């Protein structure tokens, strides 16, 4: 499983950003977004790929009854809108800034394709990144289809551990400082917020986890 997360945990901004490449530096700029600003909407033209220089962005869509469904929340160094590289013409999701310090580099698909044509190593990294992201989404779909809610939640904690966790040497706990609200977590694992609260409190009473708004603690992982 660790191989799936390896590329996700690297700073993709440093790998993909055009300022590294001499021919593209003069057209390189960073756009600033405030909390709740949309970067793009569903059905918008898919002509760019986006790199997060700072802040957080949530990716999601709206269900038929108007409910917001969050697919993921991305942070500094990550990439989104990448399906445009593969020929997607219209967005099938929205991208929205989560905080007031979001800074994003938007790259045209034509620029990405030119960079990929000119640099085989760069091209390999792009396709590897896309492949890893598809694997992650497939894994989440498998959990939604075949696992119960508690199992889905514990698997989600394992994802968070890879991305946001660090071990507390004094207690042996895995401390996860993450960007998700309980509403986001419920949406990501396909359950309701009341059900999520019940399961999290059961896990807390069983001393499997402890948690507050900004932190989840997996007890005695070491």
UniProtKB/TrEMBL annotation:
The keyword Amino-acid biosynthesis does not apply. Residues 12-116 form the Cyclic nucleotide-binding domain. InterPro entries: cNMP-bd_dom, cNMP-bd_dom_sf, Env_Response_Regulators, HTH_CRP, RmlC-like_jellyroll, WH-like_DNA-bd_sf, WH_DNA-bd_sf. The keyword Transcription applies. Keywords: DNA-binding, Transcription, Transcription regulation. It comes from the Bacteria. Pfam families: cNMP_binding (PF00027), HTH_Crp_2 (PF13545). Residues 147-222 form the HTH crp-type domain. This is Crp/Fnr family transcriptional regulator.
């Amino acid at each position: 499983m660790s191989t799936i997360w390896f590329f996700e945990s690297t700073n993709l901004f440093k790998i993909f950003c055009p300022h590294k490449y001499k021919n593209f530096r003069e057209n390189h700029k960073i756009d600033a977004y405030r909390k709740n600003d949309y970067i793009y909407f569903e059905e918008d033209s898919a002509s760019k790929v986006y790199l997060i220089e700072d802040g957080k962005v949530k990716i999601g869509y709206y269900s038929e009854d108007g409910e917001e469904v969050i697919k993921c929340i991305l942070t500094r160094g990550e990439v989104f809108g990448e399906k445009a590289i593969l020929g997607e013409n219209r967005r099938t999701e929205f991208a929205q800034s989560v905080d007031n310090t979001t800074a994003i580099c938007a790259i045209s698909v034509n620029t990405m394709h030119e960079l990929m044509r000119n640099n085989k190593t760069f091209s390999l990294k792009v396709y590897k990144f896309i492949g890893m992201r598809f694997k992650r989404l497939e894994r989440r779909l498998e959990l939604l289809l075949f696992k119960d809610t508690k199992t889905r939640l514990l698997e989600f904690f394992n994802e968070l551990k890879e991305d946001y966790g660090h071990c507390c040497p004094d207690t042996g706990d895995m401390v996860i400082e993450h960007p998700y609200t309980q509403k986001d977590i419920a949406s990501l694992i396909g359950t309701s917020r009341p059900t999520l609260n019940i399961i999290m409190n059961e896990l807390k009473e069983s001393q499997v986890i402890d948690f507050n708004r900004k932190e989840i603690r997996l007890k005695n992982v070491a």
